[in-house]
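Cross-check.
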Amino acid sequence: MSSSLAARIDAGYRELSPQEQRAADFMRDHLADLALYNATEVARLSGVSKATVSRLYRRLGFENADELRDHVRALRASGTPVASETPANFAEHLDRELANLRAALAGLDLAPAAALIAGARRVVVVGFRNSYPMALHLRQQLAHARQGVELAPLPGQSIGEELAALAADDVVVVLGFRRRPALFSGVVELAAASDARVVLLSDSARYADAVDVLIECPVDSVTAFDSYAAAASVISLLAAAVLGARPREGAARIAAIGDAYRELDELEG
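Predicted model, tokenized:
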């Protein structure tokens, strides 16, 4: 069976015995925690026998608790949201966020990526799905440091046009956090095969050999959804590094943008 655990429970719920339903109800409400619980703990917490839990596991298509835990862990590692309770306090969440940030910043060297981006004729920032807001944020930050920064794909548009026009003095910055679309690898390969240089921000080193610079940012979370706090922090640092690589041009551009803001009365006073 390849469907998610929640789908398996829902599909066969009516055929379960009352005791199995009781255990299934507990499992359905604590999906994320099942990555840690063994059959004895599930039995105790749901108020049924261990034999009932073992029988339920087999009904759901798992040989034992280890196989079920592996299934839940695989879902979480792929970025699939797994329902979980909001923590009663946020200490565990804070610890995870700090661990992500420390991992992202440990040994981080932004100079190679900043030099490429600062020296490029044109910068194309690419992001899909959950990476798209991060790409939009990076493009906005880089646009203060230099001109010629584009976002791809634009809403409702394909990306082939942007990649077809890449030149040797261009840089493609790809943001690819997990749950990447099927075309992601093709986009990286096409960009890498062009004359442009490629910078990748990702939670994985999977595409490291295909790009010029890889910047890793973990997105692990104690909740059902990935966290992009570390990625947002690295984006801020990268944009600042680009600005620092071209201080005179950046200062002049920021001043011009400030003048435009005032002329158009775009920002609060």
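Residues 174 and 200 are 5 Å apart (CA to CA). Residues 247-264 form the longest helix (18 residues). Passed to J.P. for a second look.
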